[in-house]
Amino acid sequence: MLPDKTLKAFENIHTPFYYYNTELLKKTLDVYTECIKKYGYSAHYALKANTDPVLLEMIKSYGLGADCVSGNEVKVAVKAGFSPDKIVYAGVGKSDKEIETALDAGIFSFNCESVEEISVIEQIAASKKKTARIALRVNPDIDAHTHKYISTGRKEDKFGISPWMFEDVMKVINSSEHLKLIGLHFHVGSQILDLSVFKLLCKRIEEIQQWFIERDIKIENLNLGGGLGIDYADPDANPIADFREYFKIINENLIVREGQKVHFEPGRAIVAQCGTLISRVLYVKQGKRKKFAILDAGMNDLIRPALYQAHHAIRNISSKKRPMRYDVVGPVCESSDCFGKNIMMNKTERGDFIAIRSAGAYGQVMAMRYNQRDLAKAVYSKDFE
Asked: Please, are residues 275 and 311 in contact by the beta-carbon 8 Å criterion?
């Protein structure tokens, strides 16, 4: 529940907008960094989740590096002050220009996804007389039990290098002085709530490492990616992801050899719960069978429900009247512009504030101007203190 003074301040802010609880982000980062320090791990925040500059400054201040998936994200990370030696660059389709950007920035590692990509990186590095540090993103063939659009570690997914390709990969690496293999990278999916998936990942990492051990190939870094899920159904009950149990499982199941460093790439689990999309009700429309709460926010502001059929907790934060059922929809001219159906909310009227929770990840960063709608701005809890 938001303080009354904050709700009153909302009256003077044009909706829709993203409201970021910076106090909650701080608490989340406190717990996360406590865990990685306990086990001696390193972390690189996944910029794809949210690139808001205020949030990036807070995350950087806790010593996290940056995980990027485009050349422009590399630029954003550098501009935000992340040290290049803590920046990793993944992505199945890196363009020549993006590779040049990352090489010129002097990033820690390219997480490479194919023999073809490694060959191109080698050619560009050679032309610049540079050495590209690379990690192999390996497809471990693990079902993460998550939405098919965010599952990335199965053999039928487009991501990663399959173990049967290792011989060809090493031929390319060993034939050039412009490539240095520094590690292995894994990422099996996103919004993973079944923590047994991470036990299986640790087992598969050890099996895959054996191929390199048998050939006296030193693997200095193991990057386990991200993927830990959050509670979308009840964000107030579980505002911080279960980092302690997650890292306990990793520590108990991952075999780490002397001199190896272990890395993670958290995104959603860091920023999702601190963000809320605030909208106002334009109209309450009575249909033949349903009531529609029509908001001034739409799928252009938060596309996850339309794209992934994702669930977000939706609350009327203005009304204290008895609850009723509504289909909560936006103004965009698409039937998919729906945030939730048969949602129980306090009786809703024109002008009420509606809070769409857990929107800090893959919300504002995925916004667009479809129907030429304005982009929602960001406001921060620290500004209302």
From this structure: no
Query: Could you give the CA distance from residue 332 to residue 309 in angstroms, rounded to a whole number?
Result: 17
DSSP string covering 203-262: HHHHHHHHHHHTTT----EEE----B---SS-TTT--S--HHHHHHHHHHH----TT-EE
* pLDDT tens string 177-226: 999 999 999 988 889 999 999 999 999 999 999 999 999 999 999 999 99
- CA dihedral (8, 26, 194, 340) in degrees, to 10, reads 20
Return the DSSP state at 308: H
149's tokens: 């659009």
pTM (2 decimals)?
A: 0.93
Residue 301's nearest CA partner among 285, 282, 278, 273 is 278
CATH tag, 65-265: 3.20.20.10
What CATH superfamily is the domain 4-17+273-384?
Lyase, Ornithine Decarboxylase; Chain A, domain 1 (2.40.37.10)
User: Amino acid identity of 130?
Assistant: K
